[in-house]
Specification:
There is one protein chain. By secondary structure, the chain is of the alpha/beta class. Helix content is 34%, strand content 20%. It has a four-stranded parallel sheet. Strand 1, helix 1 and strand 2 form a beta-alpha-beta unit. The chain is globular.
Length: 80
Amino acid sequence: MIHLVTSAPALHDVIEWLAPDDILVVAGGALNAAHGLQRLPCRAATFNDDKALFPNLEIDTITTEEWLNLLEESPCRTWS
């Protein structure tokens, strides 16, 4: 499952739901809270433009094209 998290409270809430094959995409206000993240059970990433605002944050980056590919490959089809 792909989790797009854009707020600090949501970031703290989602951690208990994460599974090893999930992808956590952190954006917006959630990036401020991402500095304390350690030992997540899944891959965590942010968008290239957001990463530029937080150069010391240890997190993978994805492009818009990669984001669209993730969504298209996801078994969840409830996004629009």
